[in-house]
Amino acid sequence: MTLLQALVIAVLQGVTELFPVSSLGHAVVLPKLLGWNIDQRSAAFLPFLVVLHLGTAAALLAYFRRDWLGLVLAFFGQGPVAERKAQWRLLWLIILATLPAVVLGFIFEKYFRTLFGSPAAAALFLMVNGGLLFAGERLRRQGGTKLLGEMSWQQALFIGLWQSTALVPGISRSGASMVGGLLIGFHHREAAHFSFLIATPIIVGAAALEVPHLFHPEVAATFGASAWIAGAVAGITAYLSTAFLMRYFRRHDFEALDPFAYYCWGAGLIALALLFFVV
Questions:
Q1: Tens of pLDDT along 99-142?
Q2: Which of 31, 35, 155, 204 has its CA 20 to 30 A from that of 190?
Q3: Cα 83 from Cα 144, distance rounded (Å)
Q4: Domain residue limits at 75
């Protein structure tokens, strides 16, 4: 993989990880469409994607630093009692919402790994993702006013189950968890906020499993400084994407996911056509 290719994938990751359009789906499909000689089934490709995700996690920690600082202070018993209780409750909800993806990812890891190297499957599920976003807008509770502090543990688990569907390349993690939030009565802004909060432990957890593979001789031989440069670029892009989306969802609450659904349908359909009839 050249530095230019790594940087293109990094920018794509930084945008699509937070936008509800599936970063994994794009990372799997794009190299094939561009004719890049990248072995997506190689031992080095998935760790490369993990480095990009680390950059994204750093961006989320930076953007939501006040949230995470409050959680850390509460963990160490700092701050007013009422505020500590609220932060502990939010931390518990984040943990609950994270569990489904962790458990299902561990059980079905080998199966999902085979999909990472299938551009056609990723393009197909990208279209499925568009359907989920479109349906979520129409099944949501209209005029959602629920706040994070009003969410029950059952609802957090419900959002976590939605998030776990993103184990399939082509299904957006942020999009799926946002749809779960809309279905329990969140405003788009609150749904996005919680989606981005629960993204951090998922991304960090995935990295913790894959980073040791970077030191495997086969991986180390093909893994250079370009991957870490790409990770930094992905982080910067992700920060800008988060800032844009939080502003977008603050100003739009009527069918706000529809443009992303249309994009997923169009991109998935075009990708499938190119994969089967051109590439």
A1: 998 888 878 767 766 666 678 888 899 999 999 999 999 888 66
A2: 204
A3: 24
A4: 3-260+270-277
In a domain, 265, yes or no: no
Q: How many domains does the chain have?
A: 1
Residues in the chain, overall count: 279
Helices and strands, number each (H, E), in the chain? 13, 0
Nearest of 230, 245, 250 to residue 50 by alpha carbon: 230
In a domain, 203, yes or no: yes
Question: What's the CA gap between 146 and 27, in Å, rounded?
Answer: 34
Q: What is the 3-state secondary structure (H, E, C) of 28-58?
A: HHHHHHCCCCCCCCCCCHHHHHHHHHHHHHH
- Quote the distance between the C-alpha of residue 12 and its chain's center: 12
Q: What is the CA radius of gyration of the chain?
A: 18
